[in-house]
Amino acid sequence: MPDGCFEHEDDVRAWMRDLAAVPIIERPLPDAHLLWWKAELLKRWDTQRQAVAPIEHAEPVHIGVGVAGAGVLLAWLWRSGPTPTNTLIFATVLSLTVLVAIAALAVRQS
Amino acid sequence: MDEPAFTSFYAGTARALRAYVAHTFGDFTHVDDIVQESYLRVLRMPAAPDDPQRLRPLLFRIASNLMTDEWRRRRRAAHAAETQAFEPIGSAPDIVLRLDMIRVFQHLSPQQRQMMWLAYVEGADHREIAAALSLREGSVRVLLHRARRKLASLLQLGAPSGSTNA
């Protein structure tokens, strides 16, 4: 809103009017039709993202429960099985390593 | 908003919005990106008003926020010095005068450029400027007066050459 009390008001207003008349971009405006369809596409993506958001949020929980369950199962097998042998120790360590690797990979991808 | 309504709204606002962004942003290359993003955000808003008279201030507010975000991002990245100068179209000697006008305007701060443009070119009142720039109405009164005084002094004394506030 211009200020009538400002002593240089007329100069400033005239200068701003001249500035606004300076054409600085030659290329045509973006096409309204394309903008409309781009917005429609983005809205669909937004809707899809909202729909799968609960699944994505629950994924780390699923992985955590799976890894914990596998760990408990291994511990139970270890305690209830025969005397530990080198083969059993190796199999247990390998299983745990594979479980942790799978969990880390799944968390990174989610 | 359906497509014909948007096309009509776009036809009535796009040139004004691009002029606003081009003159106040300070970087010629990203003007159309900001203009496009402003329209896309308006279109994606779930509760955007259908009335063009209510939608227009919202559009300018979104564009102002996008410019502010970009200025902040550039300040953080310390790339402000890399912004490109405006290259107004036209032929000499008129182009020299135009370039001088744009350079003088760039000596105002980004916020002062936005306020001056909204006040004098868009004809926005203090309330509308406050809404567009996320400021209090009382602050706009003071800040706009300072911007006027600064521009007047630049016009009377001549803007110092060198750095800009872009």
Could you explain how this protein is built, in words?
The complex is a heterodimer of chains A (110) and B (166). With 110 residues, chain A is mainly alpha-helical. Chain A has one domain. Chain A is built from three helices and no strands. Chain A is rod-shaped, with a radius of gyration of 33 Å. The two termini of chain A are 51 Å apart. Chain B is mainly α. Helix content of chain B is 70%, strand content 0%. The longest helix of chain B has 26 residues, at 52-77. The model of chain B is unreliable at 158-166 (pLDDT under 50). At the A-B interface, helix 1 and helix 2 of A face helix 1, helix 2, helix 4, helix 5 and helix 7 of B.
Judged by helices, strands and strand pairing, the structural class of chain B is: mainly alpha
CATH T-level fold name of chain B: Arc Repressor Mutant, subunit A
The CATH superfamily of chain B turns out to be Winged helix-like DNA-binding domain superfamily/Winged helix DNA-binding domain
- State the domain count of chain A: 1
Low-confidence stretches of chain A: none
Terminal CA distance of chain B: 35 Å
How many E-type strands of chain B? 0
H/E topology pattern of chain A: HHH
Report the portion of residues of chain A in β strands. Answer: under 5%
Radius of gyration of chain A: 33 Å
Helix content of chain B: 55-70%
Number of beta strands of chain A = 0
Mean residue pLDDT of chain B: 82
Corresponding CATH architecture of chain B: Orthogonal Bundle
Q: Helix share of residues of chain A?
A: over 70%
